[in-house]
Amino acid sequence: MFQKLWFNSFAAITFATVLHYRVILFLAAFAFIAIESYAQQCNLILRGKVLHQENDNAIEAAYVWILETRTGAVSDQNGNFVVRDLCPGTYTVTIQFLGHKEIRQTINLTSNTTSQTFRMEEESFELGGVEVHGHQEAIQTTTAVSSLYGDALLQSRGESLGESLKRIAGVTTFSTGNTISKPVIHGMHSNRIMILNNGIRLEGQQWGAEHAPEIDPFLADEITVIKGAETVRFGPEAMGGVILVNPPSLPTSKKHVTEINLLGATNGRMGNISASHQGGSKKIKGLGYRLQGSAKRAGNVRSPGYFQANTGMSEYNFSGSVGYSSKKLGVEAYYSFFNTELGILRDAHTGNLSDLTEIIENGRPFSNPEFSYQINNPRQVVAHHLAKIKSHYHLNPEWKLNFQYGFQLNNREEYDRRRGDLNARPSLDLQLFTNTIDLFLDHNLKSNWSGSFGVNVIQQANNNIPGTGVTPLIPNYDMFNAGLYAMEKYLKGPLEIEVGARYDYRTLSAARFVQGELQEADLSYQNFSAFAGGLYQLSPNFAFTSNLGTAWRPPNVNELFSQGLHHGAAAVEIGDPTMVSENSLKWVNGLEYESEKALVEFTAYANQIKNYIYLSPTGETFVSLRGTFNVYEYLQADAFFYGFDLSGSYTFSDRLNGYLKGSIIRAKNTDEGNYFPFIPSDRMDWGFSYALGRESNPNSDRITVGNLVVARQKREPDFDLAAAPPAYTLFNFGYQKKIQVSKNQLNIGFQINNLFNTEYKEYMNRFRYFSADMGRNFLIKLNYKF
Questions:
Q1: Which of 56, 329, 535, 708 reaches 20 to 30 Å from 684, CA-CA?
Q2: Quick check: is 327 in a domain?
Q3: Is residue 283 part of a domain?
Q4: Are residues 370 and 327 in the same domain?
Q5: How far is 332 from 321, CA to CA, in rounded Å?
Q6: What does the pLDDT look like over 456-486, one tens digit per residue?
Q7: Domain TonB-dependent receptor-like beta-barrel, which positions (predicted)?
Q8: Domain, as residue range, for 105
């Protein structure tokens, strides 16, 4: 029966792919680019990854040289390199990187592409005036991985984490208004997506649709999305995917670097500043530090034709780290503070049932406010502290012991529109304390085997702060989770194979007073998860990846015990304490084509989830002194998610480039034969960029024109407060200029989002019932590093 379900589901994908016009466009682009690949005698490729032997971190800017052909390459930010146009035969490969022993190895190239991982051993010597940096840990997984860094990350500066990641195919947002957004990966969000801030799993109140991740994207120089189920590697909350927010590596030399970002936007009259400074010690070799901070302020967002009342925001953030590294030992301490105040669209909080019905029918607010920076109730105030201590010790050249401890304090206050003195009190006041411990052993054997064995422990305590005057939406609770895991990877020529398994045990104890009566609950959950994946280089241009993994997620405390008004979401939410854990089986397959002019990545996935938990509108309303609110309840049903992502680029000439990315997802309630709410609709983003600079440096000036096409969500649940909004098309414009200032570079960016001021509503915006999305927005961005 299970095999038949999988076969029928993939047959459905194939049939839908042939018929859907957006898919035809995708496959036409794929076929067009693939024609560029043709057979020739010397078209073999040597791919590889260069890592530190002592810590398995990626080495950027390592020099790879083929002696016989006198050709070479330089490794990128992730340690990857490609040498093309090689004939069959035997070659001598040398790899050089400052401060490390040279690698000289003989490689035999056959009719297929060869992949090889090279690990470089540190070599101790003094060389004055040269800067040596530490390196971020390399991401080694056979599932789909996409990253934002370099110019792409620079163009996203000033946006929230969710908005930044929309540049990656298969990633969208689940938003509440135009200032609060959460990343969505293959239809999954909130507690199914794990976010790591500098290696520490971000633990906040992520269960709410209007609870944006408490993280400052300015602290990162690379943001990576892993689209597969990664519960073996990271734990139960990674069943939908993982987002890694990695800051720059700490320097270990005396050279100092300062970076400043200044941004401004017309919509909301937003201003944003960020500054960072890093350097190393003159006296202590291997000692480095970094300081970073940012501030942001914006007022009422404007839709085409009107302002949205009370949609301003303010944000103040800080982070700092210090670390020491030697050949045997590495130690790092890190702290970050995130603080934000967010206004909630006032028109989403109606006074009575007729007002609620009328504003949904009207489709826009009845009020016509002026612009203002003032933030009134309803609003949120969130402060998040994160601290970590990390260390590693090399037992020998092949084995490394790692330890990491993290502490987090998340304080969330949500204010509603109330009478008298109560208006100054939060209606929801939560403090969440989290401690995490990770202890694991890495090994990199010369026999092409590498792996990791470890244990991680998480302990949480959530407290409702007294004095709100209302019954808490969720109870006080204590949670404990312990996980034991093992992963192993084998690399040989064009083949990579990876397997892993994990066992988790979790306990949850909750208590609260409801109308003077104490309610308590003690629950426990346990489960195994496992995965197997592989990568195979089919030809010099084509690579295939496949990853099959099980995952699980115990129900969150809000899904179990919510009983009341969720003020920030302007909705009443009802939980179910009898819910059981979600269990899933996800299969992700990827095909990559790469040539000198073209790059195409195609990812198809199928995810069968048993006991999927979702929030569904009941059609009822709740009337109180504070207003009238829609009622939602948490339900469980078996689900089947499937779809694909496509991204590609093509170089038409030295100056003209084109890009294409899109995604299609289906989410079926297999118990009832209908569809789940809040699933992203089909979308495609395509465009061109043209270099305007002089012949000596054409990329110093570049313009980009993009077109986003989003279809209407036709697969709606049986009941919704309003029909899904119509399809929409947006045009965006960008200009980027690089100016050399002495030995440094000034980056100037100018963007126009929603160029023609189109009025539209995004289906994944929970406030689409009350207002349209943001209108035209002009942005200017300055970046200078010295």
A1: 535
A2: yes
A3: yes
A4: yes
A5: 7
A6: 999 999 999 998 888 888 999 999 999 999 9
A7: 362-755
A8: 44-125
